[in-house]
Amino acid sequence: MTGMKKVAFKTLGCRLNQFETDALASQFQKNGYRVVRFSDQADAVVINTCTVTDQSDQKSFQTIRQAARNHPGAMLVVTGCMVNNHREHLRKDFNNPLWLVDNEHKSSIFSIVDSYFKDEIIHPENLETDLFNYAPAEKTFHTRSWIKIQDGCNNFCTFCIIPKVRGRATSRPADDVLENIRRVVDFGFKEVVLTGVNIGRYHFEEIDFEHLVEKILDLPGDFRLRIGSIEPEGFGDRLFDLFSHPKLTLHLHLCLQSGSDDILMKMRRFYTVSSFMNIVEKVRKRYPLFNFTTDVIVGFPGETEEDFAQTVDICQRVGFGHIHTFKYSVRQGTKAERMPDQISEKVKTARSRIIRELEEAEKRKYRQSLIGKEQTVLVEKIQRGFASGYGENYVLVRFPASNLMTNQMVKVHLTGLENGADPALIGIPL
Q1: Which helix (H) or strand (E) holds 171?
Q2: 146-205 pLDDT, tens per residue?
Q3: Residue 51 in contact with residue 81, Cβ under 8 Å?
Q4: How far apart are CA 103 and CA 81, in angstroms?
Q5: For labelling alongside 306, which of 18, 30, 160, 418 has CA 20 to 30 A away?
Q6: In sequence order, what are the residues at sequence separation of 6 or more whose Cβ sits closer than 8 angstroms to the Cβ of residue 152?
């Protein structure tokens, strides 16, 4: 181990970034590198950044500074959406030499780093772009395996810079997706999660998103499938039918953003409150304990008290298992940046607090509805005699760990709920 080059990773932002980091880390391991913690000394450090909000920018900049300070002499590779959005800013703000690799060339990071240590210089801009050139990851930072099926977006929401930093929508060939899943299942992964920027708009040749999910469920092997974050568009009853399949988990992170049709129009979202609720009602009619989680933006330009009250109302009506709340953040170059009636930070903070308090109550209510039921839990951690992991409804469960291992599926009878703001269900293994 003493002669091995050491590489550390830090990932910020979305599940798509996590998939890409996992794939890169696995590639380094296969080629004789030792992957170490971000806090350990390393010869190379790869930081996969996010730029979706001001807070994301701040976290990314802080992480880069931390890496430069804690890894003197290391090769610092900065990649991800911040590079696409703030390349010149990064070049000016850091005295340390940074290797800046945009999303289009991210899959080539191993070649760039490996060549550097062989005294060869490869400039990222000279490499071919390939958004899907990631080998199946045998060893990852997670118990489950993320599967990238799509990248980019054509929606151009007025608040969002994703089309700028991730490009136009493009879908991965279906055969590549299926082969990726076959491989990771062979590696021993028990859960795969579909991810992308706008996965509901997946379309490769004659295969749309619902058809792709159907093909995945038909694959042999002992695994279950989870659908990652998805927009409430591009799918319908055919997908709802598939949730009866034992491999498909009863959970969707369905992005709401606002409960006001007026605000949804200003955001340039392609659905209405009514169509969103139609999805929820259809699914819950067939699967009463189905877990919907969501994203909500508060303080969008022009959001009135009435608009915000409508958001609160729909959050209560749906009973989300979790709400990821964002205060609207101005993104340079978006249409929303130039909109009138920008909301003060004080009002955004107050509205955010209301949604968070509501979310805590609804989260507890949803989890209480599962008490007395069974969940099949994927064991992710074992500490102090207790195992923890997520059931098929994507709720954290803790239970006594007698003769158990991580990455094991365990049937658990749910008996209660912990205290606190984010309580885990507790149970007894069957």
Answers
A1: strand 170-171
A2: 999 999 999 999 999 999 999 999 999 999 999 999 999 999 999 999 999 999 999 999
A3: yes
A4: 7
A5: 160
A6: 131, 162, 163, 166, 167, 168, 169, 170, 197, 198
**The residue type at 29:** Q
The closest alpha carbon to 59, from 69, 47, 68, belongs to 47
Q: Which residues pair with 194 in a beta bridge?
A: 147, 227
DSSP per-residue codes, 28-94: HHHTTPEEE-TTS--SEEEEEE--SSHHHHHHHHHHHHHHHHHSTT-EEEEEEHHHHHHHHHHHHH-
Task: Give the span between the Cα atoms of 254 and 315, in whole angstroms.
Answer: 12
d(CA 407, CA 396): 15
Buried b (16+ CB within 10 A) or exposed e, 122-150: bebeeeeeebbebebbbebebbbbbbbbb
CA pseudo-torsion sign 169, 394, 419, 358: positive
Reduce the DSSP state of residue 115 to 3 states and report it.
helix
Round the CA-based radius of gyration of the chain to a whole number and report it: 22
Which candidate, 424, 410, 406, places its Cα nearest to that of 376?
410
CB 199 within 8 A of CB 153: no
Residues 6+ apart with CB under 8 A from 353: none
pLDDT in tens, 245-297: 999 999 999 999 999 999 999 999 999 999 999 999 999 999 999 999 999 99
Average pLDDT for residues 225-239, to the nearest whole number? 93
Domains of the chain: 6-126 (3.40.50.12160), 145-368 (3.80.30.20), 374-429 (2.40.50)
**What does the block give as tokens for 292?**
């919907």
**DSSP per-residue codes, 227-267:** E-SB-S-S--HHHHHHTTSTTB-SEEEB--B-S-HHHHHHH
Q: What's the confidence (pLDDT) of residue 212?
A: 98
**Residue partners of 307: CB distance under 8 A and separation at least 6:** 258, 259, 260, 262, 263
Answer yes or no: are the C-beta atoms of 53 and 329 closer than 8 Å: yes
Extract the tokens encoding 100. Answer: 């800046």
